[in-house]
Amino acid sequence: MAVKMHRTLPLGLAAIVLLSAAVLQAEELSPAAARMLQDVKLLASDEYEGRGIGTQGLTKAAEYISEQFKLAGLNVTAENGDAFQEFDVNDGSRLGEVNTLVLNGPDGKVLNLKMDQDFRTCAFGNSGVFNAPVVFLGYGIEADDIGYNDFKDMDVQGKVVIIMRRTPLQSDPHGPFAVGHGISRHAALTTKLSQAFSHGAAAVLFVNDPANGRNEKQELSEQVTKAEQQLEDVASKLVAPGADSQKLLNELSHALEHLKQVRGIHGEHNADPLMPFGYGGTRTGQSIPCFQITQKVADEILLSATGNDLAELETQIDQSRKPLSKLLNGWTATGETSVNIVKVPVKNVIGVLEGSGPLKEETIVIGAHFDHLGYGGEGSLLPGAKEIHNGADDNASGTAGLLELARRLGQRKEPLPRRLVFIAFTGEERGLLGSEWYTDAPLFSLANTVAMFNMDMIGRMEDDKLVVFGTGTSERWNGVVDEFAAKSNLKISKKPEGFGPSDQSSFYAQKIPVLHLFTGTHSDYHRPSDDWDKINAPGMARIVDMLEGIVRATADANARPDYINIPGTASLERTGNRPYFGSIPDFGKEAAGYAIQGVAPDSPADKGGLKGGDVIVRIGDRKVGGLDDFDLALRKFLPGQQIDVTVLRDGQEQTFKVTLSTPRG
């Protein structure tokens, strides 16, 4: 069951409270807002199981959308006689019953390894059986362009290869694998696996590189020492003659809290964690069996065969800047992996309103994805949660907007000059699968598709603010966006990029001008708490009013919108090798700084006292003018460090102390 606001009330009373709230809200809503809220409530109910891939709820949602398209007057038979464009998607991997790994060494030595203790199967590998000699393959990197190749002069055909994660020379900012604040492409697990596969390896045994865990632990230890010293310094000032006791008591409180947090992070740190099954995603196509083994297991093999443990070999590679790949004489690996790829049928839902006149073969696509995260798992920002992620804003809100627009335009007595194709996409949360499927197999020519309009998360409008992505993809857009935003009394934040984390990207990749409407992220994003009672239905109605005007203006125009190539990708968050902070960007706020809409629960930002509405203007002594400045500034610090974060709150500067945590993902 999803987390509900009234779950502690008796069931009968809870039902009365919810019903009463719905009735009171419905009395204040326009007919359009009431219809959309009803759609959101239905699609985001537990009955629809979070509309996750592989759930019956997703199928029920598709059937509901098809029915509403039909009632709106759309043609729902354009795709082989019905509204459904069907295809199969991978629903991840499932671990089979048999996953074994035995290492046989010289003089009859046998290591019978235990699942989840000594090794773990990797979801991005393949099922298979192997019995082969073992090779130490360093980092499994083939990069002749920068003078490093672990495969050079080493035959791995039919061998089991031990590969360290990440890259050599991690501490060298000027080394061949340094890429500023990002992560080298050579470090990706799937890249390493692909290299081993292409060279004919029988299986891969990944192992954590010692440097990363060692460096993290050392950094955290240093931060504990600094926190202890900071506490001592404040305490000594407190007993000094003439001390400002109130000020120092506040400092002492901050120092104690910081020490508590950093000791907790240090104590929980695991330098050699086994990747959870599912980490790294699911393979596509052919592959080979793949495990992760612990450093302890790797050391036992390597010491026997080379006289060096993993850390010593890593150091030698760094010092020589040359690979140390080696056949581990006398060692063989016998094992079996059972990784089952689950394929499930899914479907886009398509409704069509034909145009009339000389432009009737030109098409405008209006879309919104209707899938969400089901019962959590991959994509959830509440790790380990099994509750239903109802996805009221993401994206029952956009789906409700799509249905409302279909109802309005489907009731017109006179058809528009151009064809309108309404598409409820599936698989967006898995990587824009539904929109990519449509653009690969379109019902109507993409060459004659003149525009695509997308709604994703339009249910949380605050202070009349709406973010519109793609405004630079056509000369036409700035004018029509301004015109119809003014009519709906909306404050628009324009983002020119066409590429971004939603379905409009698939169409922009086909050189089609796009607009994407979005009211912003929030603390319920990708969590079970994204429920219908937090939806701003009147705001949704105004957004649909605006989009209706844009669609009609585009359909009526004599000339199709021009296409403009805008480099770059709009994103909702920054990832990579930086400490965890936990802020949620506010893309709708124009501010001289980095505006945040909220903070993740129990995140460093939350514990430090930041909250939605704050505008971060400085980190330490570094000025912050926006998200990019914030991202780069944060990468200058280490997990466990306490930093000063200066924000504008209610027009006044306030400084908070935030203890950074280890990176996520």
UniProtKB/TrEMBL annotation:
<protein>
    <submittedName>
        <fullName>PA domain-containing protein</fullName>
    </submittedName>
</protein>
<dbReference type="Pfam" id="PF02225">
    <property type="entry name" value="PA"/>
</dbReference>
<dbReference type="GO" id="GO:0008235">
    <property type="term" value="F:metalloexopeptidase activity"/>
</dbReference>
<dbReference type="GO" id="GO:0006508">
    <property type="term" value="P:proteolysis"/>
</dbReference>
<dbReference type="Pfam" id="PF13180">
    <property type="entry name" value="PDZ_2"/>
</dbReference>
<feature type="signal peptide">
    <location>
        <begin position="1"/>
        <end position="26"/>
    </location>
</feature>
<feature type="domain" description="PDZ">
    <location>
        <begin position="569"/>
        <end position="627"/>
    </location>
</feature>
<dbReference type="InterPro" id="IPR003137">
    <property type="entry name" value="PA_domain"/>
</dbReference>
<dbReference type="Pfam" id="PF04389">
    <property type="entry name" value="Peptidase_M28"/>
</dbReference>
<dbReference type="InterPro" id="IPR001478">
    <property type="entry name" value="PDZ"/>
</dbReference>
<dbReference type="InterPro" id="IPR007484">
    <property type="entry name" value="Peptidase_M28"/>
</dbReference>
<dbReference type="InterPro" id="IPR036034">
    <property type="entry name" value="PDZ_sf"/>
</dbReference>
<dbReference type="InterPro" id="IPR046450">
    <property type="entry name" value="PA_dom_sf"/>
</dbReference>
<dbReference type="InterPro" id="IPR045175">
    <property type="entry name" value="M28_fam"/>
</dbReference>
<keyword id="KW-0732">Signal</keyword>
